[in-house]
Amino acid sequence: MIERHRSLGPHSGLEPTRPPVRAEVDPDRRRMFTFFSLATLAAGVLVSVIASNALPFRYDSNLLFIGPLLVIGFLLAEQLTIDVDVKRVGWTISFTEIPLLLGLLTAPFEVVLAANLLAGLGAQIGRRAATHVVYNAGVLCLEIAVPFAVAGMVNQAFHAVAPDWFGPVIGTLTSPLISCGFALAALTVLGGAMKVAAGARLAARTLAVGLLNTSVGLIGYEVAIGTPWGWLLVALVAVAVVGLYRAYSDLMREQRDLEALSDVSLSVARSGQGTPDPAGPEHVVSLAEWEPVAERIQEQLNATRVVLRLRLDPGGEVITLVAGEPMLDPAVRAAPSALRDDPLLQLPGSHVRSFRSLEAPEEVRRALRQRGAYEALVVPLRGASTLLGAVEVHDRVSRWRGFGRADVRLLHTLASHLATAMDNRRLLARLRHDAYHDPLTGLLNRTGFREMGGEELRRGRTAVVLRIDLDVLTTVSEALGYTWGDRMVVAAGQRMREALDGAPLARLEANSFAVLLLDHTEEQAHEVAQHLREMIAKPYPLDRIVVEATAVAGYASSAPADGEAETDVDTLLQHSDVAVRAARNGEDGVRCYAPAMGQVFLRRFQLVTQFRHAIDSGQIEVHYQPKVALPGRQVVGAEALVRWWHPEYGRLDPDEFIPVVEATGLVDALTAFVLECALIKIRDWLDRGMRMSVAVNLSVRNLADESFPDRVADALQRHDIPPELLTLELTESSVMADRERSLPVLRRLHTMGVVLAVDDFGTGYSSLAYLRHLPVDEVKIDKSFVLGMGTDLSDLAVVRTIVELGHSLDLAVVAEGVEDDISRDQLVGMGCDVAQGYLLSRPLPEERFEAWLEARTKREIDARSETVLTLLH
């Protein structure tokens, strides 16, 4: 409940209509104010009795006209006021001093007192604001009795030197000071006291305005009685002043209305702004955020009460906020859904509806009585597509006639602005939600996770970022479609959300999730990770089949073991990603980040960024391993193998940098470089009279590139090399990765005459049906079978089967990994076509390979010469 103090009585001169500090008046202070009001009334009656006895009553027949005129004058002075808002404090400028001065000059004390009481209390009752009638009656008596007493004493003291109007002027000036003093005292009793300096400034301004009003009244009086037809001149001036006042008052009203519209819109627009909320786009806004809006509407319309009924969430609960005096029946505060029969809340259209107790039907009067109101303005708050709530305004207190057209227009405009501002706030909340949340799962996205995690770290809290990657998602999407893959992601996210019990959860990428664990140790984070992996591993029913998934997890803490706290959530995300990659090679699938992991991935990053420079600067070399025909042992070709001599890391194993190069898309540059070196070497051998082939390895990206056959054809034509001298080796897995795209590429290469070989045969999808559909010319037996052939009968059987299978399909068979004579002899016995391995030679640089060829050729010549000599003998 919001309650603020209203003016405590008729206004004289310049007075505060409400205290600058909003306060809730407790029952004790209300009781104190009751005693203060009784004391004020007693003082007013006592001073009035004394003044009546001290001042003789002078009867005049003109009193029959003067009395009613004074009543009218006091009523007009009470109604023709100027309200000014200065720094959120309302001030009222009135003209009560003018009829008071005229009464001092023309009428006895009793007549003026009666006129003031009749006008003041009548206005209060007319405003339906008679809750402080005792206090007001006391002040009204003092405002007349003290000026008459002061005027009498001044006239008596200065009758010889001062004009007759001097005493009444001095007496009149005491009236606003009395009113101001008692108003400040009442505020003090009610708990809204002003500082001494502020009170002094208020008294000075009140005296200045009172002096101005008194001067105007005195001048008008002198002109009216001292000038022929002076009363007409005064009347004309009064009409002009009233017209000027009305114009100025309307201008001030428009200015205050614009300020109110701006304040209401800004108050609503600024409410609800904060950090991303994992619960959803529409979050509950506290009533405190709407209190300034309700108070501003109450202040602007000068109403006793404003009731806001707002539905902050679509389809959600309606809140009721009351600013001002409490409603008589608390049940009326219930949501509109429970008040369907309330006639005030039937809101067709979007216009303001006005209800008055005197002219309303019985059901409306009953509803007004429940609210404790005589008059009500009700307007719905309609958004773009829904009813957002309603505004009720009860009983205007500043004018006895109630709400006017200007009030209705203002309330309609306020309601339109309020509804628009609420719609805008909802739109802003939706935009903020979409910016920080994943549209598929409703979880936080990477941006929202970074914002929330960064906020917690800035508060000094210890955080653990746990990253979980869901496996088999790609397989599900390719087999069943991406819709089912998305359903699997949603299901996994829902399982983790339920298991985490409110901890922030985000979906970073397609199958990657992140959890923010606050104030957790690394041991606790490890337990949470294991639990989440168990939840994810439970079967997923998808389209009448059940899919089982696995997950790997890695986590990083903001409080590492060395005591140096980490305050960057991006770094924690990066470290947890490194830990996930390490977890893929671990046994339990969960790893904690260690600084050594970062060095490994930093090295991989350096290899990727330096690879192109390594090709251009000659760090990348092509080595050649010879291939020898069986059983004659003639060198028929070589396999081109890439080597990298890194200036910092030294000799790098191909298994270290080739997967990184393939993953980053640089394998095309590597293949082009090796192919160019191989063709240059073949051309060199042809020019020297040697016809040998070179085998170049292909990656899955080469087989998916439709333009790759054209580039191979251009290279063969440029070096004038027969296509059968170029062998392109491919793995079974690379072909099966995307058969629809790789098979057309292979057919085009085969049609060109390029020899195609299946590398590492026997380790992948090997089958007779598979080979029959591939346009290949030879198969290469994986070295793992050849190496175990001498000790493992099963490996020997596999090799024999592959040789027989290849020959049955008219394919040449190449055996890799030949390292001893026994293996070579066994292969010869099986009928294998070509051997390759350390028994013959390791991969050699170009110069050493040329030297090996030269030595091999010399040995063969010497061997043939020795045979000839033996035959001659």
What would your notes on this structure say?
The chain has 873 residues and is α/β, with parallel strands linked by helices. It has four domains: 14-225, Arp2/3 complex 21 kDa subunit ARPC3, CATH 1.10.1760.20; 265-435, GAF domain (Beta-Lactamase, 2-Layer Sandwich); 444-593, Reverse transcriptase/Diguanylate cyclase domain (Alpha-Beta Plaits, 2-Layer Sandwich), CATH 3.30.70; 608-860, TIM Barrel (Alpha-Beta Barrel). The protein is 54% helix and 16% strand. It has an eight-stranded mixed barrel, surrounded by five helices. It has a five-stranded antiparallel sheet with strand order 5-4-8-7-6, with helices on both faces. Helix 27 links the parallel strand 23 (812-816) and strand 24 (834-836). Helix 3 (97-106) packs across helix 6, helix 8 packs antiparallel against helix 9 (291-301) and helix 19 (667-687) packs parallel to helix 21. The model is unreliable at 1-24, 85-90 and 867-873 (pLDDT under 50).
Biggest sheet character: 8 strands, mixed, barrel
CATH topology of the largest domain: TIM Barrel
Total number of distinct structural domains: 4
Summed over residues and divided by their number, the pLDDT gives a mean of: 79
Distance between the termini: 128 Å
Provide the structure class: alpha/beta
Strand percentage lies at: 15-25%
Low-confidence stretches: 1-24, 85-90, 867-873
Topology, element by element:
Layout: E1 14-16, H1 27-54, H2 63-79, E2 82-86, E3 89-93, H3 97-106, H4 109-126, H5 133-158, H6 166-189, H7 196-226, H8 230-270, H9 291-301, E4 303-311, E5 318-324, E6 353-356, H10 362-371, E7 375-382, E8 387-396, H11 405-436, H12 446-458, E9 463-470, H13 473-480, H14 482-500, E10 505-507, E11 512-518, H15 522-537, E12 540-542, E13 545-547, E14 551-557, H16 569-583, E15 590-592, H17 595-616, E16 620-629, E17 635-646, E18 650-652, H18 654-663, H19 667-687, E19 693-697, H20 700-703, H21 708-719, E20 726-731, H22 732-737, H23 739-752, E21 755-761, H24 768-772, E22 778-781, H25 783-787, H26 793-808, E23 812-816, H27 821-830, E24 834-836, H28 846-872
Helix pairs in contact: 1-5, 2-3, 2-4, 3-6, 3-7, 4-5, 5-6, 6-7, 7-8, 8-9, 8-11, 13-14, 14-15, 17-18, 19-21, 21-23
